[in-house]
Design a protein that fits this description.
single chain
Length: 461
C-alpha cells in the first residue's frame, strides 16, 4: 500500500473522532475535508505512478547522467588524439600552385650593346609542386608525445570510471534517504493513531467525570502538532523524490514510488577495502598524471636536441615574357634532400622549461601521496562509523520493540485509569524517538557501507 493511503486512513480516523461536540479546534471540519480530499487525489494519481527500484534508478542514471556523458566525451576526444600522426610521427605532404600575370615596362641594356625599351610588356609566372617531409629524428620527442597521449586516454577512462562510481553512490544515497523519509512518515502516522486513541480514552473518562478539559485540549494539541509534522515530512519526501529525479536526469516534476527497505551489508572486511583502494580510479588517474608529466619532461628535453627531416617532392616552374633576354624559362622534376635543425642558443628557455616540467612532476607525486592518504583516512573513518553503527543497531532495534510494547501496554493502563496522561505522553515520545533512532542508524550504516564500496570501486547495479 502506498504511504499516502495509510496517511489518509489516519486523517479520516482523526476527522471522524475529533469533530463531534467540540467548540474550537486547530483544524476545522472544512479544512480537514479539503486536506483529506487532496490526499485522496494523491492516492488516485500515485496508483498510476511507476514503482522505481534501485537497479532501475542506477541504470537510468548511467544512461542519462550528464556528468557521465561529459566524461565519456572526454574519453572520445583523447582517443581521437591518441595516434602517431598527432604525435608528429607521420609524414606531412603539402601541395602548392600559383599563376601570376604581370604588365609593366621593360628597359634592358645588354653587354653586347643591344638595348630593349618597351612599354606594356606582359609576363606570366606559373609554379606548382608537391612536397613531403618526414621526421627522422628529434630527440625521441615523437615517442614521448605518443606515450603521453596513451596516458591521457588511459586517464580519461579512469576518470570516467570514477564518475560512474560517484553517480551510483549519489543515486543510492538519495534512494535510501527517500526510504528513510518514508519511515519517518510511518512513525508519525503511528503516533497520530496512538494520540487519537489517547484522546478517545480521555473523552470517555471526561464523560464520566474522571478527566478535565486540560487533558482533552492537550490531546487535541498533540494531534494537531502531529498532523503538521506529517505535512512537513511529506514535503521533505516530495523534495527528495525530486532530487532523485534530477540525479537520474529526469525532467523536473517526475514522480516515482519507492517500495523498499534498507538492508545493510554486514559482510564488508576492512583489509579488503584497504587493498582495493590502491585500484581506486581517482588514485589511478592521479598516478597517470605523474606519467603524463614525466613524458612532458622528456618532450621538453627533446627540444634541446637536433632535428633531422627527409624532404622530397616534385616541382614545376614556368616563366614567360613578351620581351627581354629570356622569353621562356621552364623547369620541372623531382627533388630529395635532408634538413637539419640544431638549437644552439635561445637564452636557456628550453632548459628552464625542462626544469619547470620536473617540478610539475614532483607536485603530481605529492598530490598522489596526499590523495592516497585522504582516501585511506576516509576509509578508516567510514569503517569506524560502520562498525560503531552495526553495534548500536541491535540495541536500537530492541529499544524500538520495547518502546512499541510499552505504548500498547500504557494504552491499556490508560483505559483502566492506572497511568497518568503525562506518563503516557513520555512513553509515546520514547517510542517516536526510538523509531527515529532506529531509522537514522540504519540509514547511517547504509551510507557508510556505500562510501566504503565507492572507495573500493565495488558499486554496481
Amino acid at each position: 500500500m502506498p504511504v499516502f493511503s495509510s496517511r489518509c486512513v489516519a486523517l479520516l480516523y482523526f476527522l471522524l473522532n475529533t469533530q463531534q461536540g467540540k467548540k474550537t479546534h486547530r483544524y476545522p471540519i472544512a479544512a480537514i475535508g479539503l486536506l483529506l480530499a487532496s490526499h485522496l487525489f494523491t492516492v488516485a494519481t500515485a496508483s498510476a505512478q511507476k514503482v522505481l527500484t534501485l537497479p532501475e534508478a542506477i541504470n537510468i542514471a548511467l544512461q542519462r547522467s550528464f556528468n557521465i556523458q561529459i566524461a565519456q566525451n572526454d574519453v572520445d576526444i583523447n582517443r581521437l588524439f591518441n595516434n602517431i600522426g598527432t604525435a608528429g610521427g607521420l609524414p606531412s605532404v603539402t601541395g602548392n600552385i600559383s599563376d601570376n600575370e604581370s604588365l609593366g615596362s621593360l628597359n634592358q641594356k645588354l653587354s653586347n650593346g643591344n638595348n630593349t625599351n618597351r612599354s606594356n610588356t606582359g609576363s606570366n609566372a606559373a609554379a606548382g609542386g608537391i612536397t613531403g617531409s618526414f621526421l627522422l629524428y628529434n630527440g625521441f620527442r615523437v615517442i614521448a608525445t605518443k606515450n603521453r597521449l596513451n596516458e591521457l586516454e588511459k586517464q580519461s577512462r579512469q576518470l570516467l570510471n570514477e564518475q560512474i562510481q560517484n553517480t551510483i553512490a549519489a543515486v543510492m544515497v538519495k534512494y535510501y534517504d527517500i526510504i528513510r523519509q518514508q519511515n519517518y512518515i510511518k512513525t508519525i502516522q503511528q503516533n497520530i493513531e496512538v494520540t487519537q486513541k489517547r484522546k478517545d480514552v480521555v473523552d470517555v473518562r471526561k464523560s464520566v467525570g474522571l478527566a478535565n478539559n486540560a487533558d482533552t485540549y492537550q490531546a487535541q494539541i498533540d494531534l494537531n502538532t502531529s498532523i503538521e509534522e506529517l505535512q512537513n515530512q511529506q514535503l521533505i519526501l516530495n523534495q527528495d523524490v525530486t532530487d532523485l529525479a534530477n540525479l537520474i536526469s529526469e525532467k523536473p516534476g517526475t514522480e516515482y514510488l519507492i517500495n523498499d527497505t534498507i538492508v545493510v551489508d554486514t559482510s564488508i572486511r576492512f583489509d579488503s577495502i584497504m587493498r582495493a583502494i590502491e585500484y581506486n580510479p581517482q588514485l589511478e588517474a592521479a598516478s597517470s598524471q605523474i606519467s603524463v608529466n614525466e613524458w612532458i619532461e622528456k618532450e621538453t628535453a627533446a627540444l634541446r636536441y637536433p632535428s633531422v627531416r627527409l624532404n622530397g617532392g616534385y616541382n614545376y616552374s614556368r616563366n614567360q615574357s613578351s620581351a627581354g633576354l629570356t622569353l621562356l624559362n621552364q623547369s620541372y622534376g623531382p627533388f630529395v634532400g635532408l634538413s637539419v635543425g640544431i638549437p644552439i642558443y635561445n637564452g636557456g628557455i628550453f632548459k628552464r622549461q625542462q626544469q619547470a616540467a620536473a617540478v610539475t612532476t614532483k607536485i603530481s607525486r605529492i598530490q598522489l601521496e596526499s590523495l592516497q592518504n585522504d582516501l585511506q583516512t576516509s576509509a578508516v573513518r567510514n569503517w569506524q562509523a560502520y562498525q560503531n553503527i552495526l553495534h548500536r543497531l541491535e540495541a536500537a532495534r530492541e529499544n524500538y520493540n520495547l518502546a512499541s510494547d510499552l505504548v500498547q501496554l500504557n494504552l491499556q493502563r490508560l483505559q483502566l485509569g492506572n497511568i497518568t496522561i503525562i506518563d503516557f505522553r513520555v512513553a509515546q515520545q520514547s517510542f517516536q524517538d526510538a523509531a527515529y533512532q532506529l531509522v537514522n542508524l540504519t540509514y547511517a550504516a547504509k551510507t557508510a557501507e556505500i562510501e566504503l564500496k565507492r572507495l573500493a570501486s565495488r558499486l554496481g547495479v
